[in-house]
Known about the structure:
2 helices, about 140 residues, 3-stranded antiparallel β-sheet, alpha+beta, elongated, two-stranded antiparallel ribbon
Amino acid sequence: xxxxxxxxVASLGRxxxxxxxxxNVEPSQxxxxxxxxxxxxxxxxxxxxxxxxYPDHGEPRELYFFLxxxxxxxxxxxxxxxxxxxxxxxRPVKLVLRLDGLREPALWKPRSLADKFPAREKTxxxxxxxxxxxxx
Length: 136
């Protein structure tokens, strides 16, 4: 599933993106070594990473995190691991962005397809449109 997610991210081109969730792996297993060099993004927060999952058996690990495009680097206001909530083994993660921090245009004018397809003539309202398909 990660490949499909990151293929979609790659298809966005220069548009800013944010993805987050329960990845079931730590950031170093997914992001830093395999994905970051190809998709020009970053892992927000300090280098002192905090655990987000406290299983009944095993060591606490950081499994919930956000990944952001580098276009949002100046937009991160805060990144926090919240206190334990209703599920005692999980700690949610909160990301706050200031979108006026975007320095480059995020939206670009779409290219026109007019030159790729021939224009169809409009049928005057008093005439029936031509039949499509076989005439049987």
